[in-house]
């Protein structure tokens, strides 16, 4: 049974994406793991980007993503981690995905990260112009949350988590 679980896990690996103006980092890793919606504590910037992403999804016939608070908590935690380390990463994604799945029942979880975009539209445009980021933005997900925070130099770091 463990063999089959491991095989299923490996077969369900999905692309994780990260992006900055200066560098694209592509990491392939995904947990097949899942959904509970609670209170929305997003910032105005995050809400605007979330709305732009949903407008894009609707414009191509996809469902709107619903804000998911557990994912927001972990997105914020990961954004803080990237800021503390001064670089983009998907480090600890498996643990993050397992925790989200355990708390929400999610079956699929993916993540985009980015850095150095100064407006929601600029960040969305960059993600849409990257085929691998677009996969997550236009993926078969039902819920999402994103965290956008500045470091001490005012450079913005982004983490968006997608689940279904």
Keywords:
164 residues; alpha/beta; disordered N terminus; CAP_dom; CAP domain-containing protein; CAP_sf
Polypeptide structure, described:
- With 164 residues, this protein is of the alpha/beta class.
- 43% of the residues lie in helices and 22% in strands.
- It is built from six helices and six strands.
- It has helices spanning 2-11, 44-59, 69-85, 93-104, 120-128, 131-137, and strands at residues 15-20, 24-28, 66-67, 109-115, 143-150, 156-163.
- It has a six-stranded mixed sheet, sandwiched between helices.
- A hairpin with a 3-residue loop joins strand 1 and strand 2 (24-28).
- Helix 2 runs parallel beside helix 5.
- The radius of gyration is 15 Å and the shape is globular.
- The two termini are 24 Å apart.
- Residues 1-40 have low confidence and may be disordered.
- This is CAP domain-containing protein.
- Residues 50-162 form the SCP domain.
Helix content: 40-55%
* Mean pLDDT across all amino acids: 81
Rg of Cα set: 15 Å
In percent, how much strand structure appears in the residues? 15-25%
Q: Note the overall shape.
A: globular
Structural class: alpha/beta
By DSSP, the count of extended strands is: 6
In whole angstroms, how far apart are the ends? Answer: 24 Å
Order of helices and strands: HEEHEHHEHHEE
Uncertain runs: 1-40
Largest sheet: 6 strands, mixed
**Total of helices:** 6
Strand order, biggest sheet? Answer: 2-1-4-6-5-3
Protein name: CAP domain-containing protein
Organism: Maribacter litopenaei
InterPro entries: CAP_dom, CAP_sf
């Amino acid at each position: 049974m463990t063999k089959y679980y491991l095989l299923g896990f490996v077969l369900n690996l999905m692309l994780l994406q990260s992006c900055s103006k200066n560098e694209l980092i592509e990491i392939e890793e995904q947990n097949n793991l899942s959904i509970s919606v609670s209170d929305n504590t997003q910032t105005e910037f995050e809400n605007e980007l979330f709305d732009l992403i949903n407008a894009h999804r609707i414009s191509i016939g996809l469902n709107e993503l619903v804000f998911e608070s557990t994912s927001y908590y972990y997105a914020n935690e990961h954004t803080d981690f990237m800021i503390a380390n001064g670089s983009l990463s998907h480090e600890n994604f498996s643990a993050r995905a397992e925790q989200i799945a355990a708390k929400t029942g999610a079956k699929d979880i993916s993540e985009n990260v980015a850095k150095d975009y100064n407006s929601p539209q600029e960040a969305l445009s960059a993600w849409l112009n990257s085929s691998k980021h677009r996969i997550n933005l236009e993926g078969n997900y039902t819920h999402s949350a994103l965290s956008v925070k500045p470091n001490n130099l005012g450079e913005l770091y982004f983490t968006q988590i997608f689940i279904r």
